[in-house]
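S.,

As promised, the iron/sulfur cluster run. Input:
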Amino acid sequence: MGRKGLFIDYEFCTGCHTCEVACKQENSYPAGLWGIKVNEIVLESLDKVEINYLPFPTELCNLCANRTVNGERPSCVKHCQADCMKYGELTELVKEMENKPKTVLFAPK
Amino acid sequence: MGYDNVVTTTAWSPGPGCHGGCGVKLYIKNGKVVKVEGDENHPFSQGRACPRLLALTQYMYHPDRITYPLKRVGARGEGKFERITWDEALDTVEEKFSNIKAEYGPESVLFCQGTGRDIGGPISFLAYSYGSPNWIQLGLAGHSCYTPRLGAMMATHGDYAVLDAGQFSEKRYADPEYEVPKVIIIWGQNPMPGCPDGFFGHWIVDCMKRGSKLIVVDPRWTWFASRSEKFLQIRPGTDGALAMGMINVIISEDLYDQEFVKNWTEGFDDLKRRAAEYPPQKVAAITWIPEADIIAAARLYASAKPAAIQWGVPIDKCPEGSTVAQAIAHLWCLTGNLDVPGGNVIARPAYGVTTYPFSTQEMHELYGEEFVRRLNEKRIGAKEFAMVRNFRGWAQPDLAVKQMLTGDPYPIKACWIQTSNVLGGQAADTALHYEALKKMEFVVVADLFHNPTTMAVADIVLPVASIAEKESFRSWWVPLQVIVPAVEVGECRSDWEINLELAKRFNPELAKRYGSVKDLINDRLKPCGLTYDELKAQGGWIMPPENSASRPYRRYEKGLLRPDGKPGFRTPTGKVEFASKSYEEWGLDSLPYYSEPPESEVRTPEVYKKYPLVMVTGRRSSVYFHSEHRMIPWLRECDPYPIVEIHPSVAEQVGIDDGEWVVIENDRGSIKRKAKVTPIVHPKVISVPHGWWLPEEDGCEPNLFGIWDINCNKLVHIGPGAKSGYGGGAYKTALVRVKKANGAVE
Ligand code: SF4
Ligand code: SF4
Ligand code: SF4
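Predicted complex:
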């Protein structure tokens, strides 16, 4: 089996913080430790203010091995309110990227 | 992590603190909730969850949670409380309230609620069982939260309406009857942080993915605004003018739905005449929105079919909120987007089940006509405001606080406060409410944590159960669903349990009707044909049946809306009323109009000169529900400081750096906030999040968890601002100035 990753469609990530708290609960990380951290990027563009959010899986992200081994989705992916995260084989997720701009792919480990 | 069993239930505060609706799975081990997940089989949320729900264990088992009843032993404000039994607590309340009733009459007790939680049922039930008409959102100036919009919709089309995200069908977006709105106007709301008014905010994102284009009306660039076709950056409080301007364009350019208007509406010509007073050029000058954008937005909305409007509480807070809401409701009627797939669909709770008796008929059945008449006679604001008398059984908050202080026309002696941290939360003019509450002979607070209100004024504190600990049900639009108790925490009891027990003491007749909370729930659930246990056994939720009054679409054609079974709407004329007969009857203008904010560059230029910034309070945070959750570690770290959003140009002018503490002030006082310098706010506006108090600070007086330093509502005056008694709380329009704090903080 190939490497796994997290695919994020940042066109639709609203910055809702769900993935962060989902991860803390799943891994019992106390406040101060983050398995994933949402970054806010606010820029004045030509005729608008551009607001984007981008979650970043940290070194504490274990890709929810305890869940995926049972066929469950990672906690952040399952609870994401915008349903803009996917978990899977990198080779499969790359195909998703072919079809959808404004996306990123993370291979945290 | 191991667990013994999983309990499936529904979220509806306390815990997440919300208007609820999503499906929840509670993982239980040794009688404790050890993990919370979304329920992937639930049609409302499909397994998704907000951060507050996912932090539920930190909330339920927080060391500061109140887990047994308390009585105050020191002076008010000293923070000295002592553990007592439930018997002692309830006996004390019964005795004090009975004495007040004997001496002054039952109307001398206010039953105060905030928002969230299944509170409407239990608190009105208790108030009426005791005999008080004064069920109230104490502190909420102009009662400016949803009620103005609800009243306007009722007056216009005889029902409430919501954006159609397929939520009335279990198949949701895949339902063959459903269509996604081609255009959505998000008007005065950021639907990201939660589930306003029973609406899962991210349904808008679902629609965007399915092709919906956005028009956003807001003084701030929200995430939605940055993804919109048209962003209308509006001057706070001028939404009424914008709505009239859009109506003007839609009518003068013949963009309205001629069929619908001809067949199903009344008063079109009156509206046309009124709207003619609002040409886009004039509206542009009022609203700060360029004329071309107003025209383009009106065209975009009116030419798309279907199109829908998602609106927020700033509309209620406009001066004359109920007339602003009326104008916006007219937009979806004019364009034929009422009760069609992907439009604004009429929203009735599934099977017509409500958490408490709304209708006069039900009230008569339960309490007798004479009693209901007496309530209306004594209810604060009923004399002054026909809408308070005739629309909903709420007392008027601005008059109430004055009456607490003056005793005119009758004295107020006690407050029962449940789901409301008045002083750290919704109260405008915090100091005035502080003074009024201090005058009370007796104050009971039912809550989960100490907060500025319990510390300042509570004589008795009752510990309330979270969603994981209570038996209840949810019937806000859809689905109809049960809330299932999974565990117990300390001696906490649900709002229903507490209030039923007390209600029976005041009205022993009720004991015959309702032995237990479950009897009461089963009684409410009757119209759906299932008991609580049956509904729970079949999965916990149920959608309204097809071809029924509580399921869209086009019910006005099918005769499903009116009591007489005829086609049409539940209004006096049976039509959508652009000129409202109900408003007229209530002594209000039957047509919508624009009214300038009480304090503004236009109305009070001298005040504006001194205080040149408009303070909008109330922007939501996805990790907090109003004044809740600041003590929850996983949540607080996502939004750690009481901030103020300031435009870079203002920051530069005043000499403020990002992250610096600043002073915000007007003639009513001053507060301190940490500056977030950001281009998302309009240069003439600052945005100050509400509900801030600091649980980590001293809760005793005079500090009261820091409210006098940071609570923005100190700077907001009370009203009543609106002719209807509803709307106009100046939470979005107070004028202020900002200056450097000069190291005064931290
Ligand atoms: S995959 Fe699991 S461990 Fe990684 S960020 Fe998501 S929740 Fe955390
Ligand atoms: S949960 Fe989803 S939408 Fe929310 S911040 Fe994370 S990735 Fe973005
Ligand atoms: S706010 Fe929405 S997602 Fe969060 S618990 Fe309430 S209903 Fe569920």
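Chain B has a mean pLDDT of 96. The radius of gyration of chain B is 25 Å.

- D.
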